[in-house]
Amino acid sequence: MAAAKSEIVAVLGASPKPDRYAFRAMEMLRQHGHRAVPVNPAFEEILGEKCYRSIADVVEPIDTVTMYLGKQRSDPLIGDIVQAKPRRIIMNPGAENGDLAAKAEAAGIEVDYACTLVLLQTGGF
Question: What number of other Cβ atoms are within 10 A of residue 91's Cβ?
Fold first, then answer.
């Protein structure tokens, strides 16, 4: 199924492990015609895509950030995430971060508390 508009989606907390939701999101984003950009300092490559150590290292303009990091791991990244100026941030279940949401919304970034997989499956992405 092709996306209505192809987006560049940064997957924070991306994983090469097939049992992880972040991996499933990368696969499903690609199946829907989006470019999934993995961000995780622990890996060099995921699904054939270069894995970036930080969102600040991604040179392409990011349309959406989908979060697969808990608050403790995402707190140090708030500045870089907001500075990347995505159109929106999706906080998947377990990745909610009120501080990030407040700073993002103050910068004009849409924040969705939703599941990327469900959004893709229901056409709500």
Answer: 25
Q: Region 119-123: what's the mean pLDDT?
A: 96
* Residue 1 reports pLDDT greater than 50: no
Length of the chain: 125
Nearest 10 degrees: CA dihedral of 35, 41, 43, 46?
-10
Q: What is the pLDDT of residue 117?
A: 98
User: In sequence order, what are the beta bridge partners of 111?
Assistant: 89
The SS3 of residue 65 is strand
Alpha carbons 121 and 124: distance in angstroms, whole number: 8
Q: Which domains does the chain have, with CATH numbers?
A: 8-122 (3.40.50.720)
For the cut 80, the answer to whether the pLDDT of residue 4 exceeds it is: no
- Please list the helix, strand and coil fractions of the chain in percent, rounded to the nearest 5, in that order: 35, 20, 45
Angle at 61 between CA 4 and CA 67, to 5 degrees: 75
Is residue 93 within 8 Å of 22, Cβ to Cβ?
no
